[in-house]
Every structure is written in structure tokens, then in C-alpha cells.
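Hi team,

Filling in the usual template for the complex we talked about on Friday. All components are listed, including any nucleic acid strands or ligand strings, so the model treats them as one assembly.

SUBMITTER: L.P.
PURPOSE: interface mapping
COMPONENTS: two
RESIDUES: 543
SEQUENCES:
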Amino acid sequence: MEEQVQAKNKFVVPIGPQHPALKEPGHFEFTVDGEIVVGATVRLGYAHRGIEKGCEDRNWAQGMYLVERVCGICSHIHAMTFALGAEKLANVTAPPRAQAIRLLVGELERIHSHMLWLGVQAHEGGFDTLFMYTWRDRETVMDLLEMLTGNRVNYSANVLGGVKCDVTDPIASEILKGMDFLEQRARYYLDIVSTDETFLGRTRDVGTMTKEQALRIGAIGPTGRASGLERDVRLNAPYAGYVDFPIKVVTEQGGDLLARTLVRVKELFESIRLIREVLDKLPPGEISVRMPRRVPEGAVVSRVEAPRGEVLYYMKSAGSDKPERIKIRTPSICNWATVMATAVGHKLADMPMLLAGIDPCFSCSDRSVKIVRRDDEQYMTWEALRQYGNGFYR
Amino acid sequence: MEGNFERTLIDGLNTWARTNSPWAIHYNSGSCNGCDIEILATLTPRYDIERLGIKLQGSPRHADVLICTGPVSRQSRDRLVRIYEQMPDPKFVVAVGSCAISGGAFRGLYNIMGGIDEVIPVNVFIPGCPPRPEAIIYGVVQLLETLKK
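RESULT (copied from the run log):
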């Protein structure tokens, strides 16, 4: 919106917040010159709920269930980040078995999230067959998560001081069986996305971002790794089970949509390998330890690698049973800038795939809201606009 | 009498069409998107709600059923009302998830107004955090059953 439309032949295309492409509310404005996009802006905040403030009214255990609902796709990650931070503040260490199970659920969640994304990306490219295939196969991992934790989404696997679900032998063998199936399917997807001409045509050299650009804009997660940035919290600052079970970082050099797709599909193999290794060497023992109700005074930064990138929590305690301040930084908000930077120069028809390419999560992004008042006569109030809109179509 | 007969016939035809092929539109008014991915899961092969004639599509002007997820945030309240007003009559609203019923886990937060029924009338509530795809299908079928009567 900052750059005003100059020439007469430029046109602003508003999209959202209710739109058929993505399932979440976000408003975009693309300035187009004919078919070519010359400017892009995003307006977020429709899903802002006030979770950070809400955490201050709840005690530590209740807060964990609230932050789990920051985002329904990476819910385990948020709860784990919160639990790890609170445990660090309270000088409590969860037992090794609990840490391994946290890793296990985290990697299952990564598989579910990446498959979900692959389906959505294929759908945006008009490749609905792949969308239906990935979502059918994704039900396998949803079943495993449900068997392990009791719910398909928002699993609540964490408690402060450990986890609440144990991996028994029958569950472990079911998970291994599921992994065999998923590995075979992932190989099929890798084959499809790297050889199918239609898909390549929509993704190759679209939204290319160089390593320098990615560094400057601050791209993280798979979006950054697709531009050759070797950054992964799981490797750079291992937490939970990742200390004992190191990962191999998957990177691509292309920086375009194809590279972003390949990074995510290849990460499926890495997650499957890690899950097999964890189940093979699952440490015995307790799954949780006692956590004090009151958490000692202090502040901590807790970092975890979510499917979309790095999640960062700043947590401050004043020594009571409630947090003093929780600040959440989610990966989507970092990656928005990459879309706005790479959109310019592409056709309007490429926008859905570019938007979906960073795996955006609006409920994650809407951590804060800034209201900009404009007293320009071009802008109408909501009420006036609604009256106008309803009258227009009557 | 004849006019009455014709009206009954047309009403019957309308109900038949409406209950056999309802078009739905989905709006997330501040949900954590757990419910949204479950709604999407009901459209995909394992659950496949399209076999019951239910189609999710983009424009409110083509829709019979508004499927809402999430609590109503102060930012999206106006949008939700606007989408509801744009839908042609008769229109029905299905509220999916605990948040859509009462605000759920987010009840009392400063940017949350409460459930969907604070803002627009709701026909069917589907509880769960998030509800299973089976529950969503059951809820929609309940709505269609009431329409048949």
C-alpha cells in the first residue's frame, strides 16, 4: 500500500480475507500492470486473538494448553517450546524417554505438516490429483498420532516435566509399519515433483530467491534452506531428543518454488529415518518428573524448529504460578517478507503458488496487530463500505 | 387450490435440490486452523464429503451453508457479518469446534468476542477441539435432516 499507484494502466487486485485458495484469513493487495505483478502487500491480523496476554492470566500448566492453540498444524511444537522453556526456568529436566517421545511426536507432526503442504501446493497449481493423493496418505500419519496421543490435531502430548503418552511395543510396530508405507509414497512424490512437466512448469524459476536475499530478508526454515541457508535449530542448538539423535540438514541451491518443494519432500525421508532410529533406541525409564507449581524468577529464550522454521519463545517469570510475560515469534511472520520480495515480476496466476510456497500460517502470524489510520477520502469506514456493498448488489 | 398445489410442488423441488446438493463456503474467523484442516480432510478421499453432494466453493453468493471455525475476533467480526449478508436466502450456518460454540480455549481474551452465535444466527453446533471429520459429516447430515422436515 505504501507505493501509490502511479500509472493509469496499473490496477490493484485485492484478495481476501475470505478466499477460496487458502483456508485462513489474510488480505493481500497485488498491484498489477496487465498480467505482471509490480507490487505486493499483505495485511494480517484477522486471526489475532491475544494469546500472549492471555498467558499472563493463566498458570503455567494452563498456559501450555493455550499456546498449543496458537496453530493447529504445529501444535506440538508450540507446547514443546513452552514446556522446554518452563522446565529450564524451574531447573527441571524431563527424563530421556520423554525427550525422545517429544522428538517422535515432533517428527510425526513434521511429516503431517509437509504432506499437508505438498497437497495444498499441488492444489494451488491446479494439480488436484496430487492433492488428493497426499491427503489420502496423510491420514496414515494422522492415525499414528491419534493412536499415540489420543487426538488427531492438538495432541497435548506434553506436560510440564515430560510427556503424558508412552510408546508401547504394539504402537511402535504400528508406527514402523506406517513409516514403511510413507517412505514408499514419499519416493513416489519425489519422482512426481521432479519429473512431472506440468508441475515443473509451474515451479521452476518461479519466485527465485538467492542466498544473499534470503539472508538479508531473514528467511528461515525450509524457505531459507531452499536458498542454500544451512540453518536448522535441531542441528545448530539441539533441544529435547535431538541432542542424542542428530539430524542431517536438507538444503537445495535453486531458491525457487521447485527447490522449496524438494526440500520439504526430502525432509520427509529424514523424518522417517529419525523416527526409525528413535524407536530402535528408545531410552527406558520414566516419562515425566514432578514440576513445581511456582516457577522461580528469571527469563529464558526457548527455540525449536517447527515444520515451517524456527519458533522462538521469550518467557519471563516473576516467581509466581503465572508467567510474567510470554513473547512468541513464529516462522511464518519471518517468511512473509520473502513472498512480498519475490512476487514482483511474476504473473498474477503464479501468486497462489508463491503465497502457499512458504507454507504460510495465518494463525501463527497474527501475534500482533497494528492499526494504521488513514484519513484519505479514498478509504471508507467498514460500516460505510458494507452499506455501499450491500446496496450495490441489491 | 391449484396455486397451492403448484407452490407445494415447487417447495418440494426446492427442498429436494437443497438437501441433495448443498454448496458450502468456509470462513475462519480467528481459529487456530486445527478445525480448518479437519474440514479439508473431510473433502479428501478417506472421508470424501462430496459423495453426499456437498461441495465447498469460493464465493458467498453461490453458497447455501456457511461453515464457520474459530472464535470471532474483533478484526474479523465485520467480515463474517459481511459474508453472511452476501449469501442468498435461505442460508444456514454450521459452527465447527469448541471455539465457534463459546470461544473455547480463547474465551475471555481481549480480542475475542465469543462464539459465532454472538454475531450471526447458527443452525448447527459441532463440538470438539477439533471435531473429527466424522463428527463434521454427522453435523452437516443433521442440518440436512432438519431441512427435509
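MY TAKE: Chain B has five helices and seven strands. The CA atoms of residues 98 and 144 of chain B lie 21 Å apart.

Thanks, L.
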